[in-house]
Design a protein that fits this description.
alpha+beta, five-stranded antiparallel β-sheet, six-stranded mixed β-sheet, 3 domains, disordered C terminus, Penicillin-binding protein 2a (Domain 2), Beta-lactamase, about 625 residues, 21 helices
Length: about 625
């Protein structure tokens, strides 16, 4: 009996314990945890996203570059549809009946109870007409959105454009849902996190047919959308517009930087396009047209085109030679119209001979820099050319070549500075020497630079040995700060005292007296001391490219610039006067010699052999 009684107590205890567990669990589910209540409620709630307006974009002087215009997505809930006058409906929305039928069919396939987009980006004018008659079309409602608008057609590559997210973006970032928009390029992409704002939501009660019956819980679950932060760009809109005007009917780019900050004043890539083309329902159609254009207007040459730096690179080799003490201000070399080494001949133009260092920059002597380059690589203090070449490469890369500048552009290229392994593969480890690489003495051969890198190099020279990472945004409004990297000096490996010699040569290249062999006299400005260097980049596909780098004024420089004009020939012919006009427009806000402006505006550069990528 005792054993039976004990078992009865144990069974009773187990039953009580199980009952207690269930009671506690029910209490938690019904009183403590409200998630199940919300889950059940979700069947009778509709969550309508409130899309924030994207932040505005201004230039450095407060001029508006990008703003928003109201637009609307027309939504449809298939099970709420009733027979309606499709003719009137199509007239209001400027649609064909076939579109209406296909769109409703797609919506039914998606869900007969839940809403989906019937027509994207309905304009404010069309919406005004529709709103008056929307009561005739049960099952349709409107969801507010915004589209980007542009007061002028400048800066397409700089500003970038906005497009619909794809599945890859949605998987990567759960902020985005199907139908959302995101910055695709330029500032719109780089600063998307700040510009986009934060989405809000309105929660409505719906009946079994998904018809809205009112606000849920007096709006306690609603969340207001937060407007995106405004962006103050570094761009000078007037200078940008002027640069695009000068480059019309030309292929190439202009990049202008403020040396004291790294702020980009203008970034021009031509051919370009009107940014309005990539907005609205015709965006896809226009994008296809732009992509198929043989001159590739979507291609940002300022960041992605790689050119040889040409004779502008002689300044870098001069500085490396000075730093390595194989070149001195008084070093002279003869030039008899070319550099000769055995069967090798590197041609040069007519000028005085012999020349010293400053004169070699002023007159851009190829022979001089073939000698300088070989003295750097054949320096006997290094065991072999492999070690001296590595050191030369480090010097070059310290100016921002051959690497990503880490700017705030997502699509910049790093250019090319070859490694010793490059030549090992071609010639073998012991099969190459300084003469093998002689073309790099004058900025040709395997070197590849972008216009952004060239402008940055020019800023480093203007600053006498350092630069700030180039960037396109000056300020993000609100409690946001720019990345610290934009405020840190990036030092080259050249001592600052050597730069004055190179700058003196650049000064004389522009401002030397007539008949002295100065190669950039077309960049002279009467009341501004411009320091510059011409370049001509060899182009195997046609006419050579015209290049010019410059900064001004000589003391306390306010602008550093690089100009590339494809198929333009000598640097002094087209690139130098273009840079002169840009500098004068920025510093003086006027042009002192109007015929120079007419000369550039009326230029007819040969497109036939232009590089298409």
């Amino acid at each position: 009996m005792d054993s039976f009684a004990n078992r009865r107590h144990i069974i009773r205890f187990i039953i009580i314990l199980i009952g207690l567990i269930f009671t506690i669990k029910l209490f938690i589910l019904q009183v403590v945890d409200s998630s199940y209540k919300l889950t059940a409620s979700s069947n009778v709630l509709r969550y309508v996203t409130q899309f924030p307006a994207r932040g505005l974009i201004y230039d450095r002087n407060g001029e508006l570059l990008v703003y928003n215009e109201a637009t609307y997505d027309l939504m449809v809930v298939p099970n709420q549809l009733m027979p309606f006058d499709t003719t009137e409906f199509c007239q209001i929305l400027n649609l064909k009946k076939e579109y209406v039928q296909e769109a409703i069919k797609r919506a039914r396939k998606f869900s007969i109870y839940n809403s989906s987009v019937f027509l994207k980006q309905v304009s404010s004018r069309t919406y005004a007409n529709l709103q008056e008659k929307l009561y005739k079309y049960p099952g349709f409602y409107v969801q507010a959105r915004t589209l980007r608008k542009y007061p002028s057609d400048i800066g397409a590559h700089l500003l970038g454009y906005v497009g619909e997210v794809n599945e890859k973006i949605i998987e990567k970032d759960d902020y985005y849902k199907s139908g959302d928009y995101i910055g695709i390029s330029g500032i719109e992409q780089s600063y998307e996190e700040y510009i986009r704002g934060k989405k809000g939501v309105n929660v409505y009660l719906v009946d079994v047919h998904n018809r809205i019956k009112g606000t849920y819980a007096n709006g306690r679950l609603d969340k207001q959308a937060v407007v995106g932060s405004n962006i103050i760009s570094t761009i000078d809109a007037d200078l940008q517009a002027y640069g695009e005007k000068l480059m019309k009917n030309k292929i190439g780019s202009i990049v202008a930087i403020e040396p004291s900050s790294g702020e980009i004043l203008a970034i021009v890539s031509t051919p370009s396009y009107n940014p309005e083309l990539l907005v609205g329902r015709k965006r896809t159609e226009n994008y296809v047209d732009l992509m198929s254009d043989s001159l590739k207007p979507l291609f940002n040459r300022a960041l992605m085109a790689q050119y040889p730096p040409g004779s502008t690179f002689k300044v870098i080799n001069a500085l490396i030679g000075l730093q390595e003490k194989v070149l001195f201000p008084y070093t002279k070399y003869d030039c008899e119209g070319a550099y000769y080494a055995g069967r090798l001949r590197v041609g040069c133009h007519f000028h005085k001979t012999p020349l010293n260092l400053i004169e070699s920059i002023q007159m851009s002597c190829n022979t001089y820099y073939c000698n300088v380059f070989r003295s750097i690589l054949d320096n006997r203090k290094y065991p072999s050319i492999r070690e001296s070449f590595d050191l030369w490469r480090e010097y070059v890369m310290s100016f921002g070549f051959g690497t990503y500048l880490n700017s705030d552009f997502s699509n910049e290229l790093k250019g090319l500075v070859p490694t010793k392994q490059t030549y090992d593969k071609i010639y073998g480890e012991r099969g190459w020497r300084s003469l093998t690489l002689i073309s790099m003495a004058i900025g040709q051969g395997e070197l590849g630079t972008t216009p952004l890198q060239m402008a940055n190099m020019t800023a480093a020279i203007a600053n006498r040995g350092f630069y700030y990472i180039p960037h396109s945004v000056k300020e993000i409004e609100g409690d946001h700060v720019l990345d610290n990297r934009f405020f840190e000096k990036q030092y080259t490996k050249i001592d600052s005292n050597y730069f004055e010699l190179a700058i003196e040569g650049m000064d004389l290249a522009v401002n030397g007296e007539a008949g002295t062999g100065s190669t950039a006299r077309t960049a002279q400005i009467s009341n501004i001391t411009v320091c510059g260097k011409t370049g001509t980049a060899e182009n195997p596909h046609g006419e050579d490219h015209s290049i010019f780098i410059a900064f001004a004024p000589k003391e306390k420089p306010e602008i550093a610039i690089a100009v590339y004009i494809e198929n333009g020939g000598f640097g002094g012919t087209w690139a130098a006067p273009t840079a002169k006009l840009m500098i004068e427009e920025y510093l003086n806000d006027s042009i002192s010699v109007p015929w120079w402006e007419e000369y550039i505006l009326n230029a007819e550069i040969n497109y036939n052999n232009a590089e298409k990528d």
